[in-house]
Amino acid sequence: MLDRIRIVLIGTSHPGNIGGTARAMHNMGLSDLALVAPRCKAITADSVSRASGADRLVHDARVVASLEQAVADCTLVVGASARSRTLPWPMITPRQLGSQLPEELADPEAHVALVFGREDSGLTNAELQRCHAHVHIPTNPDFSSLNLAAAVQVLAYECRLAWLEGRPSDADTASASALASHAELEHYFAHLERTLIDIGFHDPATPRQLMARLRRFTLRARPERMELNILRGILTATQQQAERATGDDGTP
Amino acid sequence: MLDRIRIVLIGTSHPGNIGGTARAMHNMGLSDLALVAPRCKAITADSVSRASGADRLVHDARVVASLEQAVADCTLVVGASARSRTLPWPMITPRQLGSQLPEELADPEAHVALVFGREDSGLTNAELQRCHAHVHIPTNPDFSSLNLAAAVQVLAYECRLAWLEGRPSDADTASASALASHAELEHYFAHLERTLIDIGFHDPATPRQLMARLRRFTLRARPERMELNILRGILTATQQQAERATGDDGTP
Q1: Domain that residue A223 falls in
Q2: Is B199 in contact with A143 (Cβ distance < 8 A)?
C-alpha cells in the first residue's frame, strides 16, 4: 500500500526541505517522490544532509514540469491546504485521510497522490481545484504555517498508521470498480468546458467559478471510468446539436 | 491543556533541531520548552532560521543541567524511545499518549513532560527509567531514526488532536451548504432524461440502464441545490440548441 502513495512537492525553493521530506518519507516507509517545477536544485549538500541517509529518494525522484504529469495516473489526489478558500472544497483531516487509504488502495492499480505547495505561497487555486479533496493539518491559528518537511512527516505518519492498522474492506463497491484517473478526469473537464462554450452557457471571459463548481461536484462523486465515458458521450451528442444549430446560423 | 505539556530535549547537538522543535511546538500550540545540558548553542542563525518566527520559544526555553530539574514538577513523564530495551518498560503509541492527555491534565496543577534524547544516541537507560512510560513512533524498521524536530512534530500533533477532540470539527465544509431535496433531484432527473432524448442520446425504448447509471453517479455526489440549478441551466441551454437544430430539420 505505502508504495502506491506518492508525495508531490510543487515549486519547492529550499533543498533542505526536499531532503527533510525524503527522510520523513523513508522513515514512514514511503518511497515515491515527485518534484513539480522545483525552484531549487534537489541534490545539494543541504538536501543530502537533511535526508540523512534517505537521499536515494531524492536521486530517484521524478522531476516534472506540471502537476498534471505528476499525478496523471493517480485515482485519488489530495492537496495539503490551509483552511478556508473562496470556494469551499471537500476538506478532510489527516486522520480521515489515513482511514480512507486502505480502501482507496485496495485496487492494486490505484495510486494516491499527496500534493504539497510552495514554502511561501502553498498551492494555487488552480492546483487545489485539481484535487479530489484537501487535507488540513490542524495548527495553531496564530502560527499556522508548518515547515514543508514537517507537514509531509505528519501525513506520512498517518499513512503509516493506516497501513499498520488498516484492512481493505470490500464493503464499498464504488471504490471497488475502476475509478477514472486524474488524466481521464482532466480530459473530461476540458471536453465539458468546450461543450459549455459551444452551447453558449459558459463564457471563459466571465467564468463565475462555473468550472470550479462543476469540478467540485464531479470530483466529489469519484467518477468511475465507465461513468465518465457516458458523460463524454452526452457531451459529444450535445456538441453535434450545437454544430447543426450554429452551422445553419452561418448561412445568410 | 497544551500550556501544561513540556517538551524536554536532552543533550541536543544541532541548533537547527532546537529551532525546528520550537517551530513544530508553536505550530501545534505548545510553548513550554526545556533544554537539558545542550551540546550546542540554542540561539544561532541556524536555529533562528529553522524556528521561522517561533524563536521566542527558544529564547524562553529553560536550560537546566539534568532531567530531574526539567521535569521535577511534572505528574507524567513520557520518554520518546526506540522499541525494545534491555528492561521492558510500559510502551505506548503516540495516539495512546494523546488519548491519555485530557485525563492526565484534568487537574489544573498537572504537568506532562515529553522527553527526547540525543540525535546520535537517544535517551540513556537511566533517563528512560525515570519516565512513567515510553512512547514509540512507528517507523520503517530499515530506517527508523527520525529527525529530532520531526519526532517532536509527530507527538505535538497528537497532543493538539487530543486537545481538539470533542470540539466540532470544521472539516467537510461542503456538506455544510444546502443539499438538494429528493423532489428537486427528481425534477432534475426528469429534465435530464428529456434532454438526453432531445439530443438523440437516449432512447426510452432501449434504456440500457442509462438513467440508472446517471442517477447513481449524481446521487453519490450529494448535490447541493445550487449545483443542481447549474446543471439544470446546462440542460436548458442544451435543449435550446437541439430545438434550433431539429427545428431547421423540420423545413423541407
Answers
A1: 182-244
A2: no
Task: Give the pLDDT confidence of B37-87 residue by residue, as tens digits.
Answer: 999 999 999 999 999 999 999 999 999 999 999 999 888 899 998 765 666
CATH, residue A159: 3.40.1280.10
Q: For residues B204 and B144, state if they share a domain.
A: no
* pLDDT value of position A250: 41
Q: Please indicate if any CB of chain A lies within 8 Å of the CB of B167.
A: no
Task: Output the domain CATH number for residue A200.
Answer: 1.10.8.590
Residues A163 and A218 in one domain: no
Report the complex ipTM. Answer: 0.72
Among partner residues B26, B139, B230, which is closest to A28 by beta-carbon distance?
B139
CB of A150 closer than 8 Å to CB of A45 = no
Cβ atoms A2, A109 nearer than 8 A: no
Please write the tens of the pLDDT for every residue from B126-185: 898 888 889 999 999 999 999 999 999 999 999 999 999 854 444 443 344 678 887 888
Q: Are B211 and B186 in contact (CB under 8 A)?
A: no
Which residues from chain B sit within 8 angstroms of residue A54, using beta carbons?
143
Q: Rounded to an integer, what distance in angstroms lies between the CA atom of residue B134 and that of residue B132?
A: 7
Contact (Cβ atoms closer than 8 angstroms) between residue B154 and residue B94:
yes
How distant is the Cα of B173 from the closest Cα of chain A, in angstroms? 6
Residues A171 and A195 in one domain: no
pTM here is: 0.77
Q: Is B59 on the interface with A (CB under 8 A)?
A: no
Find, among A61, A80, A86, the residue nearest to A118 by Cα.
A80
Question: CA–CA distance from A240 to each of A189, B164, B245, B252 (Å)?
Answer: 18, 54, 9, 21
Choose, out of B217, B218, B243, B244, the residue to mutate when testing the contact with A (most A CBs < 10 Å).
Answer: B217
Domain membership flag for residue A13: yes
Same-domain pairing of B60 and B101: yes
Mean pLDDT, rounded, of chain B:
89
In a domain, B235, yes or no: yes
Number of separate domains in chain A: 2
Residue of B nearest to A2 (CA): B140
- Record: contact A88-B176, CB cut-off 8 A: yes
**Which of A77-91, A171-185, B233-247 has the least mean pLDDT?**
A171-185
Chain A nearest-CA residue for B51: A147
Same domain, B138 and B216: no
Check CB contact of B153 with chain A, cutoff 8 Å: yes
Residues B19 and B96 in one domain: yes
